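Bump. Still looking for Peptidase aspartic putative domain-containing protein structure tokens.
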Amino acid sequence: MASKRLNNLWKRLNRDPTMKFLYSEFLREYKNLNHMEEITNCNHSNDGYFLPHQGVLRPSSITTKFRVVFDASAKTTTGYSLNDLLCAGGVLQDDLFSILTRFRKHQYAFTADISKMFRQIEINPSKRKYLKIYGKKDLKRMSSKSRVAPIKSVTIPRLELAACLLLAQLTRKVLNALKLKIDQVLLLTESTTALSWTDTPPHLLKTFVSNRVAQIQELTKEYHWTHITSKNNKADHLSRGIDAQCLVNNQFWFQEPDSFNSLNSETELNQSDKNYLSEFKSKDSVCLTVKTSALFDDVICISNNFQKLIRIISLIFRFIYKCRKNSKECGAPSKTERQNTEIYILREVQVKEPLAMKFTALNSVVM
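Sorry for the wait, here they are.
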């Protein structure tokens, strides 16, 4: 019965990080004050009783806003509770009227509150077996969260980035619930690719990665991301898949981290990795070239017969002349036209490389 109620209590605490924190702090104080002690060798005999317990939160209370109540009236499978079997003693103190009457006898009177008075009682060791409780030790792990991978095929680096976003959202939710001053928040990921993306401007990345990186940077701008090896990554058990019974018996999952000093906060990130570069927006360069050619360049390619070229160019010049002067000259090019055309061809050839610079220099000297 006590174990079942503890499991139900734990489910409720996992849904409320603030309540869980206060509950753990209360029981930790209980133990530190030596008001209870841990049972190292528990004898699960029928002779004894486990007290169910629950938390009571009263934000309006001035003295104690949160306390744990132990339910000695909860009935066991036998149909009896601890209170049913206790021998209730008589009333030891006087009635309130008598106490107040004696209070007036003296000129001066003092009142004082005894802190945790009802715990200041030494319990006979033979009777302590009736005041046992079940508890779970989870002081370091405030909360955890996992998510099933999507049915749609997604690359491993993208899934790891989604896990980073899940961690960022969970961290923000827990810290907002606690409302405590935290000196340092360290976020760990096994993926160096995802770690590189979180430090990259989102506008340089493709849509899927860009949206998640932007959310991560917004949620964790005051926190520090670093790398953790697969060997030390507890979340790796969930991502690889593990049944509930194996997880319960897994000591590595439940043990507290010894130290964070071994973490390499200066992990060298390989930003030339193909997985990292594959999510960058592609920059397509388009090169346009324009080729300019003169009339001479187009005509000279028509034939490799020099006389034929002279005749063709001569007819072109005649056409231009007729358009300007309204001339009616016709027939084959004259000797004068052919000579002028030949001079034109020779000049055009000289202007071309490699004689262009010399031709320009000669013209400048003549001028």
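The CA atoms of residues 25 and 139 lie 9 Å apart.

Edit: fixed formatting.
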